[in-house]
Structures are given as structure tokens and as C-alpha cells.
Amino acid sequence: MTTHSSEVAIVRLPPRQIAAAVIRSLLSATALVVVYYLAPLNRSITAWLVVWLIISAIALAGALAWQLRSIMRSDAPRLRAVETVAIGLPFLLVFYASLYALLSFNQPASFTQNLGRTDALYFTMTVFSTIGFGDIAPVTEAARIVTMTQMVAGLIAVGVVARLVVGAVKRADERISTKIRNGAADSQRGSAAGG
Length: 195
Prior knowledge:
Blueprint: E1 2-3, E2 9-10, H1 15-38, H2 47-73, H3 77-106, H4 117-128, H5 141-194
Antiparallel strand pairs: 1-2
């Protein structure tokens, strides 16, 4: 363990812990993509499907809140923060790709071309990355509204969520540094009393 000028403890993590976080992140992202490609997105939009999408959005918000608490309580907050982003971002992208695929199936004129699952994921990535090649564009109001919500969600993900994650890491670092300082002070008191 070392410290830098701002007195925040830098804890060297065991390679196994880093490997476990990478594997969890990769497995989670892979599972999301597999579920996306297996999900029944080529069906008519029903009340059940709308409820499922709302529950998915609430689950994303809940997972973010849980992850922020985990970061603040973690002994490896930076690793936990990276893992949060590595899992949360694919979830957000797959969520919007699902919306686009459903919209394209139910209203084929929603985009400049019909979107299959890969097309919907591709469109989601171009909107999120703000590249916007122009080969696929929303045409109907519904498609434009969903695309605008993705733009806002992308800004929130990059701005607000990044700020929350960095804030959680800072709080955890402060907690760890305080624990280390208190432990060092206790050991100095113990050696002074014994000597």
C-alpha cells in the first residue's frame, strides 16, 4: 500500500481480485447480449411488454443505486467503479436496442430502414457515441422520442453517473485512508505505551 500527496491510500489489489472483476464484467455483458438476441422482440407491443420495459428501466436505476453503495463500502472502490460502468453501460445500450427493435418490428416505417437486432444495436451505439453516420435515422415521432430519450440517458450516463461513481470512489478512499490513519495512530500509541 502507498499514499500520494493528497493522503489517499492506494491499495494494491491481488491479481485474483482484478481477474474476478474482469470475468464478472465480461460474463455480465455477454449474458446481456445473449438475452437480447434471445428475447422475443419480434412480437406486437402489449401491455405486458410495456410493463417489462418499465421494470427494466427501474431495475437499471436500482442496480445503479446498489452499485454506488457497494463502491462506497468496498475496500477496492476503483475496481468496483470500473465494474459498475462495465456492467451498467451494456445494460443501457441493450435496453435501447431492444426498444428500437420492438419499434421497428411494430411500426416498420419508424426508421429509414427496418431494423433487425444487430441493426438496432448498431443504431444504439451510433446514437450513444454521437457519431450518427446517417445510414439509419428515426422517421416517426415515436422513434424520434425514443432516440431523444436515449440521447438524454447517454448524457446522464456520461455526466451524472460518472460524477456519482467518482464521488463514491472518493468517499470510499477517504474511509479507507481514515481507517489506515487510525490504525497507524493506534499502533504508535501501543508502541509508546509499551516502550
